[in-house]
Amino acid sequence: MGLNEKPLSTLHEKASYDLDDFEVPTGREEAWRFTPLSRLKGLHTGKAATAGHVRVDVDAAPEVTVETVGRDDARLGKAYTPADRVSAQAWTSFEKATVITVPREVVASKETVLTLTGSGDGATYGHIVVKLEPMAEAVVVLDHKGSAVYADNVEFVVGDGASLKVVTLQDWEHDAVHVSHHHAQLAKDATFSSFAVTFGGDLVRLSPSVSYTAPGGDADLSGVYFVDAGQHLEHRLLVDHSQPNCKSNVDYRGALQGEGAHAVWIGDVIIRVEAEGTDTYELNRNLILTDGARADSVPNLEILTGEVAGAGHASASGRLDDEHIFYLQARGIPYDEARRLVIRGFLGQLIEKIQVEGIRERVLTALEAELAR
After folding, report:
1. 292, 319, 346 - which closes a domain
2. Kind plus residue range of the DSSP H or E element containing 177
């Protein structure tokens, strides 16, 4: 399949399953200008040696169906069309896919956990589909570990009145490179919430997106990231409002410390002409803890109708508030502990939204380890 006849918007002009429809990025393109291409290990050029392996282990709720399928399975690629060169490379190159299905009206009795473990021996590609049939409810965790050069596409298909909660953890080893697209397609009155936690890896570029096929959809996208010296952690979000009376909310927060720590957050929201009654808001905040760290934050709203319930965005990057530190020190709390308390409060407010207790505790423990540095 080639290029879509109708471009998504002026912000997102291409979508195609054909790798040849995408030129090799040079870094001058808007979509790639913040990404250090030299650190992608060839994922963007097609020259990555495909000798690696990422093992997918699934601990599923008993009501959920888990399948490993080949490229020719008709369920693959129905919700998402690759939107850039690496995404198209992943679509072209994966060999096996994992398909998770939650049957109609089933409420999963526990979370389904997919653990993806990199072997550290070269580049590889993957594909995952999570499908909730009408009125189903489930929680899915994607847990990334080990060392890898990995690109993948993940499709979340949420049926009429269904509810899906997703937690994705990028807890890679320090040398890992991961470029991933997560796309949620919401049917009538469907609800979708995702929480992204990105602490590990040398370079991680995660692109969550949402589209609606009928009115009443509600999406909530949250995330926290902690960037250390030399790390590049990038999150590029897109919410495409193409149906009336749908909602979306985005809230991402990050902290950065160390020379060369670099965070990138791009938030794109499109409200098309037909999407009357849209209610949307996006927010990104970055806390810069040391000299030498850099945060780029770019929220974009493209509104093509005046009939909206609400539409707004905000972005802020700055250092610790001296008044907050002074307030705590004035009550006998040493500076280092006061600093940790402020950072915990800043990120912990979002972390508390993680509904899987074991994952929430793990993230809080990882945050403490970061602060101990």
Report:
1. 319
2. strand 177-186
Q: Helices H, strands E: what count in the chain?
A: 4, 16
Report the greatest alpha carbon distance in the chain.
65
Domain range for 157 is: 19-319
Distances (CA, A) of 32 to 28, 38, 154, 234, 332: 7, 12, 20, 11, 47
pLDDT band at 38 (very low <50, low <70, confident <90, very high): very high
Residue 175's φ and ψ, nearest 5 degrees, are: -100, 5
Q: What is the pLDDT of residues 220-252, one digit of tens each?
A: 999 999 999 999 999 999 999 999 999 999 999
Q: What residues are paired with 128 via a beta bridge?
A: 98, 154
Q: Where are the beta strands (DSSP E) in 257-362?
A: 262-271, 279-288, 294-303, 310-318
Residue-level pLDDT at 297: 96
For residue 333, count other CB atoms closer than 10 A to its CB: 15
What does the pLDDT look like over 309-324, one tens digit per residue? 999 999 988 887 667 6
275: its two tokens: 């999407």
Same domain? 46 vs 189: yes
Of 229, 228, 176, 186, the closest CA to residue 206 belongs to 176
| 117 plus 213 within the same structural domain | yes
- The answer to whether residues 111 and 75 touch, using CB atoms and an 8 Å cutoff, is no
**Taking Cα atoms as reference points, which of 138, 135, 58, 61 lies closest to residue 98?**
58
* Cα distances (Å, whole numbers) of residue 155 to 101, 181, 183: 12, 8, 5
**CA distances (Å), 12 to each of 25, 76, 239, 302, in order?**
15, 22, 11, 11
Question: Is 9 domain-assigned?
Answer: no
Which tokens go with 197? 């936690």
- Residue 138, both tokens: 């489930």
Pairing of the two strands 177-186 and 137-158? parallel
